[in-house]
Amino acid sequence: MVTVAVRRVNLDRSKESLLDFIDPRKYFLLPNTAGCYTAEEAIRTARLGREVGLSDWVKVEVIGDQKTLYPDVQATIEATRILVKEGFTVLPYTSDDPVVTRRLLDVGASAIMPLGAPIGSGMGIQNAANIQILRELITDVPLIVDAGVGTDAVLMNSGIAHAEDPILMAEAMQHAVIAGRAAYLAGRMPRKLYATASSPLQGVVR
Q1: What pLDDT shows up at residue 154?
Q2: Residue 49 belongs to a domain
């Protein structure tokens, strides 16, 4: 899946475009509304993406603060509500607030994409408790941490795009995801408050 910022890509197919280098038979295009600051802008951008044939799926981003790029959750809920009614499959970028999450689910969001940290900050998940609460709350749609480390999926841009060797970094992240999944399936050792000798005496035959 490749996200495409509708407002930042040349949609005139008569001229060279980033879209010329993405094979839609191999990659699923997910238009997003990056750069929008109102619900109206996001709705218009989603409609434009569908009109030019990108997709009727859309990642809704409505920014509420230019410095932190935190979402305007009220506008996000409103844009999601209208776009769902128009037949879009909507994946909203949102805060890690359980109340906002319930509102987005109520209006028909097809996934919940909370931030783990500010976009592009590279800090990883800052509020693990809230992400855990969302994991328990969301049962019928995917939970995708949009900025920070993913739980159901890993969505990454800046960490790869800003690397000195993006291709090598993408390969490294692929291996990291495989390793993380394998570690989860292996079952980590339990956490304990006190120390336990790594070479215990229990079970040793004297």
Answers
A1: 63
A2: yes
- CATH, residue 59: 3.20.20.70
The reply to whether 59 belongs to the active site is: yes
Identify whether 197 is part of a domain: no
To 10 degrees, the CA torsion angle through 115, 118, 120, 126? Answer: -70
Give the active site residue among 15, 59, 85, 192: 59
Q: What is the pLDDT of residue 150?
A: 43
* Average per-residue pLDDT for the chain: 83
Q: Given a cut of 90, is residue 189 above it in pLDDT? A: no
Q: What does the alpha-carbon distance between residue 121 and residue 38 come to, in Å, rounded to a whole number?
A: 23
Please give the model's pTM, rounded to 2 decimal places: 0.70
Q: Does 90 reside within a domain?
A: yes
- The pair of three-digit structure tokens given for residue 145, joined into one six-digit string: 């941490």
Domain membership flag for residue 73 = yes
Q: How confident is the model at residue 23 (pLDDT cuts 50, 70, 90)?
A: confident
